[in-house]
């Protein structure tokens, strides 16, 4: 049976909030809540692939402590920017 678009968004959202590493929950969960519904099919496919990666690798890539795979780098940059905006107090 093929996954519906709604079921896919719910699955990706759930996997974003339940990573196993709390820091990644707090980075990916809010990003998913704010952006998944507006992403294209191609972007969702990349996000799904990103969720298959190890949390420690994801954190290193987001923090700029390692080089992300080329296919994931643009999305990781977008996630890192969103997290910085969300976590930086306004002056």
**Percent range of helical residues:** 55-70%
Distance between the termini: 50 Å
CATH superfamily: Flavinator of succinate dehydrogenase
Q: How confident is the prediction overall: mean pLDDT?
A: 94
**Which CATH class?**
Mainly Alpha
Count the DSSP helices: 5
Tell me what portion of residues adopts beta-strand conformation. under 5%
Q: What is the count of distinct domains? A: 1
CATH topology: DNA polymerase, domain 1
Major sheet details: none
What is the string of SSEs from the N terminus onward? HHHHH
Low-confidence stretches: none
Q: What is the CA-atom radius of gyration, in angstroms?
A: 13 Å
Architecture per CATH nomenclature, i.e. the level-2 architecture: Orthogonal Bundle
Shape: globular
Structural class: mainly alpha
Number of strands: 0
Topology:
Blueprint (H helix, E strand, L loop, with lengths): L4 H13 L4 H14 L5 H11 L3 H8 L10 H15 L4
């Amino acid at each position: 049976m093929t996954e519906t678009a709604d079921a896919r968004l719910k699955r990706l959202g759930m996997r974003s909030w339940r990573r196993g590493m709390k820091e990644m929950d707090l980075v990916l969960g809010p990003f998913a809540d704010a952006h998944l519904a507006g992403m294209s099919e191609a972007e969702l496919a990349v996000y799904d692939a990103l969720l298959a990666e190890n949390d420690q690798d994801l954190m290193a890539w987001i923090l700029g402590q390692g080089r992300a795979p080329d296919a994931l780098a643009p999305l990781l940059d977008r996630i890192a920017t969103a997290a910085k905006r969300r976590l930086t107090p306004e002056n």
